[in-house]
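The authors assume throughout that readers already know how a fold can be written as discrete tokens. A single example would do more here than another paragraph of explanation. An entry of this sort, consisting of the sequence and the corresponding backbone structure tokens, reads as follows:
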Amino acid sequence: MNPNNPNVERVTRDVQDAARAKGIKLFVLKASTESEIETAFVTLVQLQAGALVVAADAFFASRREQLVGLASRDAIPAIYEWREFPAAGGLISYGPSLTAANRQQGIYVGKILKGAKPADLPVQQPTTFELVVNFKTAEALGLTVPPSILARADEVIE
């Protein structure tokens, strides 16, 4: 998680609660610089982490190549929020479609340019979510992706 993200405390609490409910041991590592990302991966290896969940954050999106490369180097299965990560070689992503979000933003801009007041427009949440699996990465990690996941995937990268 990026400690500079204003949602970090709430998200940390939520994921820790979910992990406890499932009986999963969870370590929350924080990084807000390239070197801290490197250090976090050293820690992951020392902890013998079985997997990594990368929090949704603009900083992490800007460091996509670094995160995917380190996960590959250290053979750590990782899940991300956006499809761009598995497209860059990451294992899997599940999250809102950035294409759909950008389309909605364009619709709102059009409404504003036609005279709508921004304060009068309703707040909207994502409605389109994407599951993307990089099958090549799964094979490289020695993982078998369950057929049910492959069947549900919006895209399987081979």
In short: The beta strands are 52-53, 78-80, 92-96, 129-134, 155-157. The chain has eight helices and five strands. The mean pLDDT is 95. Residues 124 and 142 are 40 Å apart (CA to CA).
